[in-house]
Design brief:
Helix content: 55-70%
Strand content: under 5%
Distance between the termini: 40 Å
CATH class: Mainly Alpha
CATH topology: Four Helix Bundle (Hemerythrin (Met), subunit A)
Shape: globular
Structural class: mainly alpha
């Protein structure tokens, strides 16, 4: 059952997501959809963010808990893991390329769905899991804050 630490984790992740979304919305209002943000176009960065929020679901379910990933689960880009998990740079390049070919609304929808799925799993985190894996859970919100900082105006 989720406890205080788990509730705090979900709140921190959601707050970081809210802050990033506000900066993304401001960038879109300024018409910077395709301009580089730390080496990526905005939607490429968002494809990357969506991927890593999606990836948190199987990490929590399978790697941290040892339970099965739901059948048919896949990433929003269509990527299906097979064999050894590639290096982060491989995932980042693939997801940025996917996002580059998509309308911004498709990328935003994927990000929203990824975030919603992550919050759903975070709602099931136990107090013990929150404590034992605090570095991992803290990294979820830190990743979002890092990208928000990259969009600072």
């Amino acid at each position: 059952m989720a406890g205080d630490a788990a509730t705090r984790i979900a709140r921190e992740v959601d707050r970081a997501n809210y802050d990033l979304r506000a900066r993304v919305n401001e960038a879109l209002r300024r018409g910077t959809d395709g301009l580089p943000v730390s080496g990526w176009a905005l939607k490429e960065m968002l494809g990357h963010v969506a991927f890593w929020e999606e990836a948190a679901v199987p990490v929590i379910l399978h790697m941290l808990r040892g339970t099965a990933i739901p059948g048919g689960w896949r990433f929003g880009s269509g990527y299906v893991p097979a064999g050894e998990w590639p290096a982060a740079d491989v995932h980042n390049a693939r997801e940025a390329a996917w996002a580059a070919d998509q309308p911004i609304q498709t990328v935003l929808l994927r990000w929203d769905e990824a975030h919603s799925g992550l919050l759903g799993v975070l709602a099931t985190v136990t107090e013990d899991e929150a404590v034992r894996h605090s570095d991992y859970f803290g990294g979820l919100s830190a990743h979002l804050r890092e990208h928000a900082a990259g969009l600072a105006t």
